[in-house]
Amino acid sequence: MTRTIVESQTKTAIIGFDQPFCVIGERINPTGRKLLAAELEAGNFSTVEKDALAQVACGATMLDINAGVVYNSNPNPNETEPPLMTKVIEMVQALVDIPLCIDSSVPAALEAGLKVCKGRPLLNSVTGEEDRLEAILPLVKKYNVPVVAISNDDTGISEDPEVRFAVAKRIVERAADYGIPACDIVVDPLVMPIGAMRTAGLQVFELVRKLRMELGVNTTCGASNISFGLPNRHGINAAFLPMAIASGMTSAIMNPVRPQEMEAIRAANFLTNNDPHGATWIKHNRPPVAEGEAPAGARGAREGRRRRRSS
Amino acid sequence: MTRTIVESQTKTAIIGFDQPFCVIGERINPTGRKLLAAELEAGNFSTVEKDALAQVACGATMLDINAGVVYNSNPNPNETEPPLMTKVIEMVQALVDIPLCIDSSVPAALEAGLKVCKGRPLLNSVTGEEDRLEAILPLVKKYNVPVVAISNDDTGISEDPEVRFAVAKRIVERAADYGIPACDIVVDPLVMPIGAMRTAGLQVFELVRKLRMELGVNTTCGASNISFGLPNRHGINAAFLPMAIASGMTSAIMNPVRPQEMEAIRAANFLTNNDPHGATWIKHNRPPVAEGEAPAGARGAREGRRRRRSS
After folding, report:
1. How many interchain CB pairs under 8 A, A with B?
2. pLDDT at B295
3. Which domains does chain A have, with CATH numbers?
4. Which residues of A touch B271 (CB under 8 A)?
5. Residue B219: helix, strand or coil by DSSP?
6. Do B271 and A247 touch (CB under 8 A)?
7. What ipTM was estimated for this complex?
């Protein structure tokens, strides 16, 4: 059974077919968030702090940390991103204790993150592009961390799922040459928007199943991409996630603050027998007890809490 | 490609892997509905009428008709159910034009329904029990209708999905002996409550996939059974349905009046490329146009509606 182990200093998250779905919180990422980008350039980390706490409170298993901001004062990310990555990771891991996912397209920023990140973070990402394989796989080996493998290569992103599978397979093989086991590769099969490509959903479901059956790897994706440009995106995402889980997907980079998607994931965990006795489901969905009907014990406990609050 | 054709006098519903999920409205069924049972015994069909119209308005593909009420005045369903089935079907098909599913455990009630039902109804159901096979398959052949095949037999309902698959296979083979093709068998693999059996969800997903891949049959189920006894049942159902659809399920007997489940199904149709260009999704989720922003045509139409309402 494939298990990808990711750790903070104190907590372990396991990505695996027999585990609750791994929710990688996507919010700490200035891409497309102008206000956050401006804050980071100004050295203001209040939104990062708020997003870290909110995502953990909503049930994130792991937090993605992307510091890919393009400064107005210096447009070279090779210079600006590594020190910012260091700073954001130090700040976040001082604040919350779940494992982190170091996310950058700048190899120096990935290594800067690896140097300060405690435990065993997930590295995000390598692709099938030659220069990326050569830059990232040695880091994966050196720091003994798992890595997200995105299934595009030097020819770009293929619309043919067979080609994307072949790219993923090649990354797994190249990683093996470095002594990196398949359980440390989390493949992102690439999710296209169904608004642009009608077969995008079916492609992902088939690819995930094939990646699981034939390569035995865990999988992840940028889940909300599926609904790009469409109305009621949360409704689409909330069906896509259980369908991907039923097909074998084991994690996603997504917004854990969205209740509809998180409820769908909790239900899917229960339905795949990864929520023993439905304990998590029941905890989140316990029906409210009417005042008059509350058993004495429960009422007492509730009143106790009130008293403590008002004291 | 397996296609099960079900027809009313004027409309055709196709159950198939390349079709939108077939929603069989479950509401017209006195089982567990004391008020409806009492109404039917008193010859009052107002709830049936209301349920028929509401289910069609909410997007049911087909309506299940069950007249299995136990009269206080006569506890023998063999006497009471056939004439009631006749009456309910005649009433419903005078009111709505979608295909019907004739649902009974009383063979005489099934035949009474077949006699008055226009078009090509779905018969619900045969099991793997010897006496049921011998009573129902000749009806299926005689009236040339498709039939729901429930995967239990004389030994009961097995908890082993392999046994349930074997029962389904035997029904398909027995039907073939009568000249009934596999495309006219819609297998119900039997959905157990996850509250009672932790692997119930996984079992259904695996069985549906196997039934589709190995027997090439369409499938259905009593969907809400999965969440029996649990809090926030709609949340579980709304994840279960897309997961079952991703596994290959093509229809369910369910309550189409529930918006959460129906939204999940519309999203799943889009994600399996069975909602071309997302037309149905977009129609149901068009963002509201603010008064000031409405194009003249839309505003005119809206005001036209208002005028008609107030006249």
Report:
1. 120
2. 45
3. 3-286 (3.20.20.20)
4. 194, 201-202, 226, 236, 239-240, 243
5. strand
6. no
7. 0.91
